[in-house]
Specification:
This protein has 120 residues and is α+β, with helices and mostly antiparallel strands. It contains five helices and three strands, in the order ααββααβα. The protein has a single domain, classed as GMP Synthetase, Chain A, domain 3, CATH 3.30.300. α2 packs antiparallel against α4. It is globular, with a radius of gyration of 16 Å.
């Protein structure tokens, strides 16, 4: 298929693609919509100011856990877990009573790096 005649954009807007995870959909519960709105309007801008980003990976209503992934400068930053727990978790729990905690999603490379840092 010829990309030029497909009508699709040649370049993706990084901000638009980063925000797709927090787009509110019709089938989102009120809780999920509130979480996404907070992430998009209050949390993501602060994280982006530090050169990182955050991606929403889901909410488990049974456990009250929000799953997030830190990206960019925040993904390798030693204080990202402090940011996640002290900043993000506290804000979400304050505004959304159904949230009981926040967990960071790691890819395989990040898990290996985390394990290696605990072995040393």
């Amino acid at each position: 298929m010829d990309i030029y005649s497909s009508g699709k954009p040649l370049f993706l807007d990084a901000n638009a693609s980063a925000s797709m995870d927090t787009a509110i959909h019709e089938d989102d519960s009120e809780t999920v919509a509130m979480i996404k709105e907070l992430l998009e309007t209050r949390i993501r801008p602060a994280v982006q100011d530090d050169g990182g980003d955050i991606v929403y990976h889901g909410f488990d209503p049974e456990t009250g856990i929000v799953k997030l992934k830190m990206q960019g400068a925040c993904s390798g930053c030693p204080s990202s877990s402090v940011t996640l727990k002290s900043g993000i978790e506290n804000m979400l729990m304050h505004y959304v009573p159904e949230v009981k905690g926040v967990e960071q999603e790691l890819d395989d490379e990040e898990e290996d790096a985390t394990l290696a840092s605990h072995v040393d």
